[in-house]
Design goal:
single chain, alpha/beta, Nucleotidyltransferase, domain 5, 3 domains, five-stranded mixed beta sheet, two-stranded antiparallel ribbon, 13 helices, 7 strands, 54% helix, 11% strand
């Protein structure tokens, strides 16, 4: 059996496997239960294995790599065009196998357990922030029904709501006062959880040399640095900085034909969280540059020609390429760095 390429459709309980030889002919078509996966692949000759970059993909990629296989994670949107006829597990596994045979198929970097752990902290923090905002809005909305308006900003809620609860002249029912007090306590708990997770991210940042290196870039703080280091992994996986910027979705989207290049807004592909961090960091740099006479001339000239939103995305793109250069070439950040002439 000349087995060279395998596509696996991941699942919680039953995995579909499709194997092909070097000419693309099907050699294996079978289902495996979860407990059967590792013993089955341990008995196979090392080959190329492809999976969609979905839930649990990084875990299985690490396990199969430990068995000697060459594992590649493929973005799901690049697998979909290879699905024939109706969608089912067998068709998905076959599509993954076919996508693996394409020489220029993009791949997702495989993350180790430590990278996944710190990214999980980032995701949990983001979830608490969304819940905190929702809780604050609910408190505002409930109080607004009684004609009580609180100024914008979450910080005003824990300051003003206790006074509202204690005020006996606002005609609020006693049960409603108890409810609002409960909601404010929940808001404070969410805020405490966000603070603790940020402390954990800061601790990881202090222990990671690559993250500290990235934090020296203007517009890149500990949050952005830790998220980028954990998400990128080995920066040499990307050919150059432009490829990393495209992976993050901060490059123009193309709609060109007939030799005429048409560039649209940014593509917004890749991880929305990483792109948001980079752009928000760039906005902070631009706000400082507007008030500082000694600001970077590149940013000053850019603000003359473009509006702030375009300038923020351009700076985020530049920072992404700088991040790639620092990680791929193991360099420290230098202000005003100029590439040496060849």
């Amino acid at each position: 059996m000349n087995l060279t390429t395998i596509g696996i459709d991941l699942a919680k309980a039953v995995f579909q496997v499709h194997g092909a030889d070097d000419k693309g002919r099907a050699v294996i078509k079978k289902q495996l239960k979860r407990a059967q996966v590792l013993p089955y692949f341990a008995n196979l000759t090392p080959c190329r294995i492809g999976m969609e970059a979905s839930g649990s993909a990084h875990y299985w990629a690490r396990k199969l790599q430990a068995l000697g296989h060459n594992v590649q994670l493929i973005p799901p949107q690049y697998v979909k065009p290879f699905v024939k006829r109706n969608k089912n597990d067998a068709a998905d596994a076959e599509a993954i196998c076919e996508a693996m045979m394409r020489p220029n198929m993009p791949a997702v970097p495989i993350k180790n357990a430590e990278q996944q752990a710190i990214l999980s902290v980032h995701r949990a923090r983001q979830g608490f922030i969304k819940a905190r905002t929702a809780q604050a809005n609910q408190i505002r909305g409930l109080l607004a029904e009684y004609g009580l308006i609180i100024p914008q900003g979450i910080s005003h809620i824990p300051k003003q709501v206790p006074e509202i609860i204690e005020d006996g002249e606002n005609d609020l029912p006693g049960s409603f006062r108890v409810l609002i007090a409960r909601l404010v306590d929940h808001l404070k708990e969410l805020d405490r959880q966000v603070g603790e997770l940020e402390t954990e991210i800061q601790r990881w940042h202090r222990d990671n040399a690559a993250s500290q290196k990235l934090a020296k870039i203007p517009g890149v703080g500990p949050l952005t640095a830790t998220a980028m280091v954990a998400s990128i992994g080995d920066a040499r996986h990307f050919k150059n900085g432009r490829q990393l910027a495209a992976w993050l979705g901060i490059v123009p989207r193309q709609h060109s034909t007939g030799g005429k290049a048409t560039l649209l807004g940014i593509s917004k592909r890749g991880d929305t969280y990483l792109r948001t961090l980079l752009i928000h960091g760039a906005r902070a740099v631009i706000r400082v540059a507007e008030r500082k006479a000694t600001a970077d001339s590149w940013i000053k000239n850019l603000l003359v020609r473009r509006n702030k939103n375009v300038a923020a995305v351009a700076l985020a793109n530049k920072n992404a390429r700088t991040i790639w250069a620092l990680l791929a070439h193991d360099r420290d950040y230098e202000t005003g760095y100029v590439k040496a002439a060849l």
